Amino acid sequence: MKTPDIRSEETPALRRSFGLSRRQLMAASTGLAAASMVGPLSSSAAAKGNGVLVPRGKLGIILYSVRDAVGRDPLASSLPSGFKEVFAELARIGYKQIEFAGYTQHANAEGGRTPAPALLKQWLDDNGLEAEGNHGSIPSTITDATLATFDAACEAANVLGMGHIGTGSDPTSSAYLADWQLAADRWNILGERAMNKHGLKLYTHNHAEAYSHLNDVGPLDAQGRPTRQSGVRRLEWFMNNTDSRYVFLEMDIYWAHVAQYRFGSYVAEDGTTVADPFDPLGTVNTFGPLRYPLFHAKDGTSQPGTRDGYAFAPFGAGVIDYRAFLGGVGAKGYHNPMWEQDSAPSAAVPGQSLELAAFSFNNLKNLRG
Predict the structure, then answer these.
(1) CATH 3.20.20.150 fits 53-365, yes or no
(2) Domain boundaries, the chain
(3) Radius of gyration of the chain from Cα atoms?
(4) Taking the alpha carbons of 358, 65, 247, 278 in that order, is the dihedral positive or negative?
(5) How far is the C-alpha of 314 from the C-alpha of 358, rounded, in Å?
């Protein structure tokens, strides 16, 4: 597949898909974005930084960003289709690390619907790629059967050469302390098993709601549940009540910024609203940067007045200050930032997700600070 030159008029649909003018797209692709971009690449300081913020060997992508290409029928398209061809294209772009979002592809792709882990590993090796993790499922209960399923997932991860195994969901979507306690107990068991039996770091991925506050005090509702908050954030409680040796996190930096926008206060037991600003970078450094082996490097444009305050954007075309974030986090160079854009696939532009993968790679690669 030929990668379009985004400085030309070859890709008007690509420009329209994330609302940039031709000039803005040119600027973002070269790391010299105009002031209106207000992004991490928008200042001369970014171009004159003191070092690359993402080591070359840690330039990664989660395959959810190109899920349409992985699931595409190779018999119906000349575009890269299925794991083998997508790996080759991502390696050609320059990516070095892969985070899986499951192990299924189109049934007509080489290897069938669910290629064996050993075959996936061979394709990764053939392209100089390294698997880092997977957004799989974590048992919701602890039984002999669920532990056996978990062990099988860990064994597949070991065949693929991963250092981490995880999930794309929050530990629980509940607002109540009792459910977070159950989740913490379960994750402690699974995290210790993953590390001691399989040599893997077990990680959870956050959405915005995970950084909202627990309902843990105040008047009870009709089901006997508390309706107000003492100021403890859900995921921060989880961090404090899981074993740092065995339970790790993949901060989705976009969703953490949405949480910063949405959850800057709570309703106290007496019914008053209490300001409580949320700082994504400060949270990582407070709980220890080594507890965050992976990040999702997801960018967004500013959308004030909407529920989330942001909208998905290609990396480098948004306003999230990755130069400040990655430059300010401790253990610089330790983390594995996986590019993700939930909206990269497009039914109208079949090649869009891989085009955006190339666009975002270039900005991630050139990020300095």
Answers:
(1) yes
(2) 53-365
(3) 21
(4) positive
(5) 10
